[in-house]
Amino acid sequence: MTDNRTLISRFPYLKQDFAASLVVFLVALPLCVGVAVASGVPAELGLVTGIVGGIVTGLMRGSSLQVSGPAAGMTVLVFEAVKEFGLPVLGAIVLMAGALQVAMGLLRLGRYFRAISVSVVEGMLAGIGLVIIAGQLYPALAAKAPDSGLGKIAGVPGAFLDALGDTGALASLAVAAGTIAVLLLWKHTPARVRAVPGPLAAVGLATLAAFALDLPVATVEVRGLLGSIQPPPLSAFGELAGVGLLGTVVAFTLIASAESLFSAAAVDRLHSGPRTQYNKELVAQGAGNMVCGVLGALPMTAVIVRSAANVQAGARTKASRVMHGVWLLLFAALLPDVLAYIPVPALAGILIHAGAKLVPLRALTVLWREHRGEALVLATTAVSIVAVSMFEGVLIGLALAVVKTAWEASHVKLEIVDMGAGPIEAHLSGNATFLRLPKILDSLEALPQDRPVRLDLSGLHHLDHACRTALENWAARHSAAGTEPVKLVTAA
């Protein structure tokens, strides 16, 4: 009895955290496997990343209720990296990305990720979602996906037509469609039924259907946990000197960090407990990725789906996320052969559903009505990721966001008041920069040369050197025409 009281005093929320950990484990299991298969790596490596995210990152400080693991948002980038550099080099990339995250956290750079344009982040997620949907339609149709993002989208109609005459492809499509249907309808089932997480129920029902009906669909290949772990060879680190590989490391670092910290901000809004310490969370994510890199596993990020499930299940401390990692470890160690029964199209359905949730159609509609510039940034980022690649697409989005901000920051209003007699009043307000200089000069030079002008600059918040010089030169030219000198009025 005394021991129980001591345990309760040390872990007052153990019951709530234990229950929440089981829910998160059941949500994480199919997602870990699905992300790994979609990334072109052994299914067990997704479990390894989930285990490290739970136990290693889960024990560290930062965000108490946020859950980390392999994320659908990194699938496209990982697949491209494995295809270009090979699976052995993936560990080196993840290890170096983790080291950069730790360095950024120690340098207290975590808070600056909050300054990234929300439209760029949403555009990044939308682009990833579109590529995931297009890419996963092929395993859902038992077909081979093209390499490029545009190729995946362009080839979808042909893949559907080819599937019409193929029994195996139709069976695969039926399993994927059934999985998506279960995910969409699960929230309408009775509360007792919803105690089982939707992703687990969808995959479980798809597995039972495929087994009971003896459907000719592909299933997950199992190698065993220890057989899948392959630490990167020393030769892989020598390849880091290449520009292309360094760019991939930077892409892994920035995208994983941004996704984790934006997820932390979202999770903070779901509970009233301790707030996220962004720099410490960045260090924790980096430490987890360094361990994943050593094990040759997938990169990790904080995942909003698992984190939200953790909060909604009643978790109170980080013990829930640590225990969820323990349950993943026990499953991977004791029941790995269960994975061999999971149909690949069921995992494709899980990821198509996850990808669709990354595309913010409702938010884009609102943005188009209220902030068309932000909507343009979001759409351009998404399209660039699909058309070019993940890294270049994000860079294009960031560049466009900077240009848009600079353009808006240079907003200036010129108001001309001409009463018909006396001097013409010209009032400038806002921010006068070289970006708007041609428009300002065109309006001023159109004023009558034979009338005196009073140019009021007192409403300007900012007047850069180029504008000041140009306005003074215009005033000198206008005054030289024989009229009364232009009167410049500046702020007191």
Task: Please characterize this protein's 3D structure.
Keywords: Membrane, Transmembrane, Transmembrane helix. The chain is an alpha/beta fold. It contains 21 helices and six strands. The chain has helices at residues 2-10, 14-38, 43-59, 75-85, 87-106, 118-140, 149-163, 167-185, 198-212, 225-228, 234-238, 243-268, 278-295, 304-312, 319-334, 344-358, 361-370, 372-387, 390-409, 437-445, 465-479; strands spanning 68-69, 301-302, 412-417, 424-432, 453-463, 487-489. The strands form two sheets. A four-stranded mixed beta sheet has the order 3-4-5-6, with helices on one face. Strands 1-2 form a two-stranded antiparallel sheet. A hairpin with a 6-residue loop joins strand 3 (412-417) and strand 4 (424-432). The longest helix has 26 residues, at 243-268. The N and C termini lie far apart (78 Å).
Structural class: alpha/beta
Calculate the mean pLDDT score and round it.
86
Q: How are the strands of the biggest sheet laid out side by side?
A: 3-4-5-6
Q: How much beta, percentage-wise?
A: 5-15%
Number of helices in the DSSP assignment:
21
Radius of gyration from CA coordinates:
29 Å
The termini sit apart by 78 Å
Short description:
This protein has 492 residues and is an alpha/beta fold. It has helices at residues 2-10, 14-38, 43-59, 75-85, 87-106, 118-140, 149-163, 167-185, 198-212, 225-228, 234-238, 243-268, 278-295, 304-312, 319-334, 344-358, 361-370, 372-387, 390-409, 437-445, 465-479, and strands at residues 68-69, 301-302, 412-417, 424-432, 453-463, 487-489.
Observed structural traits:
transmembrane; 492 residues; transmembrane helix; 64% helix; SLC26A/SulP_fam; alpha/beta; single chain; 6 strands; 21 helices; membrane; SLC26A/SulP_dom; two-stranded antiparallel ribbon
